[in-house]
Amino acid sequence: MAASPHTLPSRLLTGWVGGCVWYLERRAVQDSPHKFMRLFRSVNKQWITFQHFNFLKRMYVTQLNSSLHQQVKPKPEPIASSFLEKTSSSPTKAEIYEMRSLSPPSLSLPRKPNEKELIELDSASIIESSIEVGNKTRDEKQWKEMTLQLDDLPGILARLSKIKLTALVVSTTSAGFALAPGPFDLPCFLLTFVGTGLASCAANCINQFFEVPFDANMNRTKNRPLVRGQISPLLAMSFATCCAVPGVALLTWGVNPLTGALGAFNIFLYTCCYTPLKRISIANTWVGAVVGAIPPVMGWTAATGSLGAGALLLGGILYSWQFPHFNALSWGLREDYSRGGYCMMSVTHPALCRRVALRHCLALIGLSTAAPLLDVTTWTFPIISLPINLYISYLGFRFYTEADRKSSRKLFFCSLWHLPLLLLLLLTCKQDGKGGRGEPRG
């Protein structure tokens, strides 16, 4: 049966269309953008892991979103001079020069570089220096043995003993000795002076030994000798022992047992009570005020051999003076104390810190008025000391109301000259005779 004339062309057309479809399907499989087949043709014939699929996902996303491509803009590199090329002997510099020689000529600097290109030159030099620093040998990065120079030892020991604070302690002790009734005994005064200074050095040294990990977190104390490793803890404690033992011995057998007991008690109170309390309770401020009030009492007992009303008055003046002095100081160091982990009024109870400072500024007026009542001074003293007491009370009131760094700083600097001037007025207005209800040393 012969085929119809319409059947043959239709069959040919159908075969041609099928061949085209087959060709397009094969081409589409070969040019697939997903490229799944490449994962199964690994060079090392490893198993397909999660990293392969994660890489496939990132590649697919970046192909569909061309905006995610990083726009890399090469920076022009400075041309190394012939002098640097000849003198550079390290392999790092040679590698840098070889990389620069491969840079395209289009990125070379013009003859007259502008300001931006000069900045880029500086950054390139900084990168080179950082590469040189990074190539230090492993021996240079290791810990080295600490060496102590004998020339630096006096300065280190002075900072270890807080020489300024020790000078304040010795001066208040001397004021207590001078204000005591009775004749002035120079050998006893010198023994008291040296013994009190040695006891203060020992207490300050032990205090720094206990507070090394906390002082390292504070900007005010991070340069202390033990924190920086300028002196070993063993040597520091040996120095403290060499100060404490002869200091207490001088006060006990050279002056009198009462003064020696007060010196030993003050070392214990400062190192074993005040120092740990700084990280426990705000009561450390009151304990620290007692520590500062004992030295003038020691001066009085060294001269008279007993406690009297005058000794308690001097101790009370030093006790009250320390609150505006220290509270104003700690107000500007709140961040430091908080970072060091210390529990201070200025950090945890700021309103109480200002209130206590003002309260004890006013207490100085009452204590100065009580001096002639206890036969320590004449009635001239409360009159001539009233202006400076009123001024520090005024600054204490401003600190209480304004509560800022400016008012606290003014109160602190006022306290620095207020105490020496007040002690000088006490000495000027000292009452003759057996004052203070304490027997003279004789």
Number of helices: 21
Mean pLDDT: 77
End-to-end C-alpha gap = 159 Å
Instruction: Give the beta-strand count.
Output: 0
Q: Are there runs of 5+ residues with pLDDT below 50, and where?
A: 42-48, 66-73, 80-110, 434-442
How much of the polypeptide forms β-strand, as a percent range? under 5%
What general outline do the C-alpha atoms trace? elongated
Radius of gyration: 41 Å
Helix content: 55-70%
Instruction: Return the string of H and E elements.
Output: HHHHHHHHHHHHHHHHHHHHH
Sheet of most strands: none
Structural class, from helix and strand content? mainly alpha
Textual characterization of the structure:
This protein is mainly alpha-helical and 442 residues long. Helices cover 69% and strands 0% of the residues. It contains 21 helices and no strands. Helix 8 crosses helix 14, helix 12 packs antiparallel against helix 13 and helix 15 packs antiparallel against helix 18. The longest helix has 25 residues. The C terminus is likely disordered.
